[in-house]
């Protein structure tokens, strides 16, 4: 759990400033501690009067055309990647000491995330989320079959975003989405990354400190669960919705503040899996190719992303499945070495795996608990959460047997062979799964598709109807 301690002048802590609607707030009032590495960083106190704009204020982006907003986002993305951008360079340096991912992975994640700030991408996202994107820019006239007329608008909301700590790239997407729906945004930064969000916003402010996108954005850090802060901010008097990413504890903490008028849009904990049919085991060449595809899904963001595969259901006899496990371990270990990620497994997982090694008649284990890649074969999913380059291969007689393990927390299903996907998609959806893809393609996604079984931007906005009250003509 994150902690807050009083500042110790003798203790050196990296500064994590806030961004408040165009202004940067520095301060070392509080020493914070990151959840994953226990590294300290210094922040100001949260200035409530500056992060909560009054309800009487019309959102700065309300009457700015979405085309202009997209142009500014695209320009910001180009500036983010510039070699002379001091904010992003400083951000990466600080991330290297505060985040569990190695430097190369952090840099690649940010670079890839900026590709979201492409006008073609942003246009596709809007068109997929809104049947009529004009509703963001104007009151769209409507009429029903009775002749009653009205106007509808996707009105700019007031959003608090509780950001995840696993991927710095989510900051880029969240800023873009908050701007596209013309929201007033307050981003609660994660302890694992209290830097990226502010670095992006400072880049934008350098382009135009008075731009309405800049004036619509604030970013601050406080410890999740800090009731003294959250009971002030998490109120319908100030915000419409809370957009929450994170694990079970983070989501449960937010839920306790919900009330009429204050809604939750939740990107809650998800687990992704692989389903591998017997066709993968027909010969050594195919087996190795499929194992490599599977390893790509396991190692998405070094298995920190929700789309990263945790469990791999493989159809076939144990002897053949064990051959698959051996090659899967080889490719996971290769990808781990290439990434430079040398984190060891945590103690609880190490102890669980060591117990499985002693029970070799029930489990198969390839690799060690040294964080260089590990595969555990079992007849049912293990009772710990595979993470940090760890795969749990579950042997099944038929992929039909894997369907029973699907639930509403199952996000992405990587599938092989590809020609059997259509046979399973309805059953996977009925179980609660949200996405099925070719094995090896868990990371990339079709632009504008639903995320976690919803169109997020459509849920972000405040839908407002203006009815003119014209009654249908009386029958004659």
From TrEMBL:
<dbReference type="GO" id="GO:0003995">
    <property type="term" value="F:acyl-CoA dehydrogenase activity"/>
</dbReference>
<keyword id="KW-0560">Oxidoreductase</keyword>
<dbReference type="InterPro" id="IPR008670">
    <property type="entry name" value="CoA_reduct_LuxC"/>
</dbReference>
<dbReference type="Pfam" id="PF05893">
    <property type="entry name" value="LuxC"/>
</dbReference>
<dbReference type="InterPro" id="IPR016161">
    <property type="entry name" value="Ald_DH/histidinol_DH"/>
</dbReference>
<protein>
    <recommendedName>
        <fullName>Acyl-CoA reductase</fullName>
        <ecNumber>1.2.1.50</ecNumber>
    </recommendedName>
</protein>
<comment type="similarity">
    <text>Belongs to the LuxC family.</text>
</comment>
<dbReference type="GO" id="GO:0008218">
    <property type="term" value="P:bioluminescence"/>
</dbReference>
<keyword id="KW-0521">NADP</keyword>
<dbReference type="GO" id="GO:0050062">
    <property type="term" value="F:long-chain-fatty-acyl-CoA reductase activity"/>
</dbReference>
């Amino acid at each position: 759990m994150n902690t807050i301690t009083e500042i110790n002048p003798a203790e050196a802590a990296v500064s994590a400033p806030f961004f408040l609607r165009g202004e940067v707030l520095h301060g070392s009032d509080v020493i914070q501690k990151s959840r994953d590495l226990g590294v300290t960083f210094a922040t100001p106190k949260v200035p409530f009067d500056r992060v909560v704009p009054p309800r009487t204020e019309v959102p700065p982006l309300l009457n700015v055309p979405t085309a202009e907003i997209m142009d500014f986002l695209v320009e910001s993305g180009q500036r983010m990647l510039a070699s002379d951008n001091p904010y992003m360079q400083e951000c990466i340096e600080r991330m290297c000491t505060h985040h569990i991912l190695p430097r190369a992975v952090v840099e690649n994640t940010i670079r890839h995330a900026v590709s979201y700030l492409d006008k073609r991408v942003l246009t596709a996202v809007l068109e997929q989320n809104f049947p009529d994107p004009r509703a963001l820019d104007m009151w769209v006239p409507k009429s029903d079959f009775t002749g009653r007329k009205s106007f509808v608008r996707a009105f700019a909301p007031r959003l608090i975003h509780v950001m995840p700590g696993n991927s710095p790239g989510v900051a880029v997407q969240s800023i873009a989405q908050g701007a596209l729906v013309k929201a007033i945004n307050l981003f609660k930064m994660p302890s694992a990354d209290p830097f990226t969000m502010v670095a992006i916003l400072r880049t934008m402010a350098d382009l135009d400190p008075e731009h309405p996108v800049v004036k619509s954005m604030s970013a601050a850090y406080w410890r999740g669960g800090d009731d003294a802060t959250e009971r002030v901010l998490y109120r319908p008097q100030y915000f419409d919705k809370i957009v929450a990413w994170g694990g079970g504890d983070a989501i449960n903490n937010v839920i306790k503040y919900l009330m009429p008028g204050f809604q939750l849009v939740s990107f809650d904990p998800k687990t992704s899996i692989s389903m591998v049919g017997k066709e993968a085991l027909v010969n050594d060449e195919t087996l190795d190719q499929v194992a490599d595809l599977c390893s790509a899904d396991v190692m998405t963001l070094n298995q920190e992303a929700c789309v990263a595969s945790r469990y791999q259901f493989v159809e076939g006899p144990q002897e053949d499945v064990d051959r698959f496990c051996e090659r899967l371990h080889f490719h996971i270990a290769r990808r781990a070495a290439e990434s430079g990620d040398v984190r060891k497994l945590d103690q609880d997982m190490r102890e669980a795996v060591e117990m499985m090694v002693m029970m070799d008649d029930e489990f198969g284990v390839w690799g060690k608990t040294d964080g260089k890649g590990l595969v555990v074969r079992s007849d049912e999913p293990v009772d710990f959460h595979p993470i940090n380059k760890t795969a749990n291969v579950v042997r099944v007689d038929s992929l039909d047997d894997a369907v029973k393990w699907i639930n509403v927390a199952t996000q992405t299903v990587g599938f092989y062979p590809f020609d059997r996907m259509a046979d399973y998609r309805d059953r996977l959806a009925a179980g609660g799964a949200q996405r099925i893809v070719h094995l090896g393609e868990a990371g990339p996604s079709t632009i504008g598709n639903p995320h976690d079984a919803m169109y997020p931007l459509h849920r972000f906005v405040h839908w407002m109807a203006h009815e003119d009250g014209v009654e249908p003509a009386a029958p004659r």
